[in-house]
Amino acid sequence: NAGVTQTPKFQVLKTGQSMTLQCAQDMNHEYMSWYRQDPGMGLRLIHYSVGAGITDQGEVPNGYNVSRSTTEDFPLRLLSAAPSQTSVYFCASRQTQVMGTEAFFGQGTRLTVV
Amino acid sequence: GQQVMQIPQYQHVQEGEDFTTYCNSSTTLSNIQWYKQRPGGHPVFLIQLVKSGEVKKQKRLTFQFGEAKKNSSLHITATQTTDVGTYFCAGPKDSGYALNFGKGTSLLVTP
Question: Which pLDDT tens digit goes with each residue over B3-18?
Fold first, then answer.
């Protein structure tokens, strides 16, 4: 079982560049989400989705876009990268058939914006 | 909005000492989850607590959910170097499927 797969694992961008962080899960989970992790800040929710075609903003959505065209994929787009977006990004998924189930995380994408 | 606060931010113990991290929510939670993240790794689910006053044990780890369902704790007895990592609590955001995480407690264990 692959679980949650994130690509790339590492990325360096120049300020102003755009890119897409990929996230795919093979567990048929309806719920998917993106977090960023910065030192001393914990895991902050960027965007989430409760199913294909449905997305919503989290705590820190500015500068990021998401879409959910399939159950499996939930890409995160940085439209114009800024140094403040240097962070570790985690994608997570959960099943929604039962409330309160565990979240499965991908391995993370370590992004540096110079 | 609902916030989850976690203390302490850091804890450094000698191997064999006990360790406790505390989690407090600004609102009543339907459930609370705990995750562990090893250095350089990703968060991994440990346990979920649902009932008021619930206590669950996993070997040397004891998890508690407060009577008011607004606070929780994780206690590790006789820490080992394998316990090193950051421990996060998480509560449901707005009674939905999204999770609000605390800032985590980073545990360092020296032999």
Answer: 899 999 999 999 999 9
- Residue A31 pairs in a beta bridge with A94
Report the distance separating Cα B110 and Cα B15, nearest Å: 6
Instruction: Going residue by residue through chain A, which has 114 residues, state the pLDDT in tens, using 9 for 90 and above.
Output: 679 999 999 999 999 999 999 999 999 999 999 999 998 889 999 999 999 999 999 999 999 999 999 999 999 999 999 999 999 999 999 987 666 689 999 999 999 999
Structure tokens, B43: 């968060």
Please report the pLDDT score of residue B1 as a whole number.
Answer: 64
Other Cβ atoms less than 10 A from the Cβ of A99: the count is 14
Closest Cβ opposite residue B45 in set A43, A58, A102? A102
CB < 8 Å from A in window 35-64 of B = 35, 41-45, 48, 50
Looking at the complex, report in whole angstroms how far the Cα of residue A76 sits from the nearest Cα belonging to chain B: 16
> Does the N-terminal peptide bond of residue B92 adopt cis geometry, omega within 30 degrees of 0?
no
Of B76, B94, B92, the C-alpha closest to B84 is B76
By Cβ distance, the residue of A40, A42, A100 closest to B31 is A100
> String of b and e for B45-66 (b: at least 16 CB within 10 Å)?
bbbbbeeeebebeeeebebbbb
Type of residue found at A31: Y
C-alpha to C-alpha distance for B74 and B64, rounded to whole angstroms: 7
Structure tokens given for B69: 């369902």
